[in-house]
Design goal:
It is built from twelve helices and 21 strands. It has about 425 residues and is an alpha/beta fold. The protein has two domains: about 160 residues, Lyase, Ornithine Decarboxylase, Chain A, domain 1, CATH 2.40.37; about 180 residues, Alpha-Beta Barrel (TIM Barrel). The strands form three sheets. Strands 4, 14, 15, 16, 17, 18, 19, 20 and 21 form a nine-stranded mixed beta sheet that branches. Strands 5-6-7-8-9-11-12-13 form an eight-stranded parallel beta barrel, surrounded by four helices. Strands 1-2-3 form a three-stranded antiparallel beta sheet. Pyridoxal-5'-phosphate (PLP) binds next to helix 10.
Length: about 425
């Protein structure tokens, strides 16, 4: 518990701490960053990302493996670069992400391409640069990829994404491994799909893949998914189709509000034990973690614009909004909100923290006890994943700036988007 005199105790993510009445990230004062760069401002700890990564690396130590960071969680170049330099490959879901990945310096062979709707030009570009694997989600996609690769005189490396039909016990919008959602190929069709792929001269089967959901806070769904996947590998290899790697996807949750997901290292120790027991101990492992590498490494700093106390609700209007922090509006997600410089809590009140966007869905936190005045600054915690990468220009709001803190120094890694940046691609109609 880290808290300042008078304020309600709030447990902070690692790398965040109060000292001398000011919230710091790795020893850097957040209020100073907000004054220097303005708000809303995303701030990330490089050490926090590397420490989250090292939990996976510890768990997988001594095994043939590749950690492919699912870059849709946060695709800012300097963040990709940080994880790539630490050994990560990248899991991409679009041609745009492929270009970002290459710009960040990833070896194309460490890129895997996921997603249900890859287009021909995206496939062509990924084949041209030589990515490591396409995770294919339907027979129709398999056939198009085969045709595109043959047209280039190449064989596309493929995994088939299987839908293991296990319940990850998470929010329905971020559950992907149950029957009845659009992801993956149903368990009972997998063998036939592999036979089909193996017979295509433009394809080379390299692996099998599943990804059961996001913000998973228990080990059991992973253990079940692994078992279901290995049952399939037994059958596929019995049919004479070798599987080089097993990809268990991503999805491990983080602590937003007291959740206690398993430690990545411990989870993998248990999963490796299962692999050993089932005779797959030597098989290459691929994983695609996103949120768990970056989520708790970042915060969004915002300034209180107005206090609007009311009969039923007190509203705290801040300068960050749903276009910066879409998770509450999209998933009713919870983010802790803490003051950068706590007051004495003499005037603690319960507030709904809301943004300036013209939507009732534009809220960031509900019923939060805070002692604040206009001009105070707050940190929205655990904002490293699925915030900046989902940010929009709704209400013609420029996207926020971003800063990376590394060992006591801070670097601006993305400038605040100006209105001119937003207007650049548009044109007025010619004057009649
Ligand atoms: C989103 C996604 C991931 C990453 O999920 P997290 O919950 O952020 O770890 C991994 N693989 C695929 C296919 C995804 O769509």
């Amino acid at each position: 518990m880290s808290h300042s005199a008078g304020q309600l105790p709030v447990s902070l993510p690692p790398h965040f701490a109060y000292s001398s009445g000011q919230l710091h990230i790795d020893g850097v004062e957040l209020d100073a960053l907000a004054r220097a760069h303005g708000t809303p401002l995303f701030v990330y700890s490089k050490a926090a990302m590397l420490s989250a990564l090292s939990a996976y690396q510890r768990g997988l130590k001594g095994r043939d493996h590749q950690i492919c960071y699912a870059m849709k969680a946060n695709s800012t170049l300097a963040i990709l670069q940080t994880l790539v330099q630490a050994g990560c490959g990248l899991d991409i879901v679009s041609g745009g992400e492929l270009e970002r990945a290459l710009t960040a310096g990833v070896a194309p062979s460490k890129v895997i391409f996921s997603g249900v709707g890859k287009t021909r030009p995206e496939m062509r570009r990924a084949l041209e640069v030589g990515i490591g694997c396409f995770n294919v989600e339907s027979t129709a996609e398999l056939d198009v990829l085969d045709e595109v690769a043959r047209g280039m005189g190449l064989r596309a490396p493929v995994s088939i994404r299987v839908n293991p039909n296990v319940d990850p016990k998470t929010h329905p919008y971020i559950s992907t491994g149950l029957k009845g959602n659009k992801f993956g190929i149903a368990h009972e069709e997998v063998l036939a799909t592999y036979r089909h792929a193996a017979a295509c001269s433009g394809l080379r089967v390299v692996g099998i893949d599943c990804h059961i959901g996001s913000q998973i806070t228990e080990a059991a769904p992973y253990m079940d998914a692994m078992d279901r996947m290995l049952d399939l590998v037994d059958a596929i290899e019995a049919a004479g189709i070798p599987i080089e790697h097993l990809d268990l996807g991503g999805g491990l949750g983080i602590d937003y509000n007291g959740e206690t997901p398993p430690d990545a290292g411990a989870l993998w120790q248990a999963l490796l034990q299962k692999l050993d027991t089932r005779g797959y101990g030597q098989r290459k492992i691929v994983i695609e973690p996103g949120r768990s590498l970056v989520g708790n490494a970042g915060a969004c700093l915002t300034e209180v614009l107005y206090l609007k106390p009311g009969e039923q609700k007190n509203f705290l209007i801040v300068d960050a909004a749903m276009n910066d922090l879409p998770r509450p509006a999209m998933y009713q997600a919870f983010h802790k909100i803490v003051p950068l410089s706590p007051r004495d809590a003499l005037a603690m009140k319960t507030w709904d923290v809301v943004g300036p966007v013209c939507e009732s869905g534009d809220w960031i936190g509900r019923d939060r006890a805070l002692d604040v005045q206009a001009g105070d600054r707050l940190a929205v915690l655990a904002a490293g994943a699925y915030c900046m990468s989902m940010a929009s220009n709704y209400n013609t709001r420029g996207r926020a700036a971003e800063v990376l803190v590394d060992g006591g120094t801070s670097t601006l890694i993305r400038m605040r988007e100006s209105t001119a940046d937003q207007l650049r691609l548009e044109s007025l109609l010619p004057v009649a």
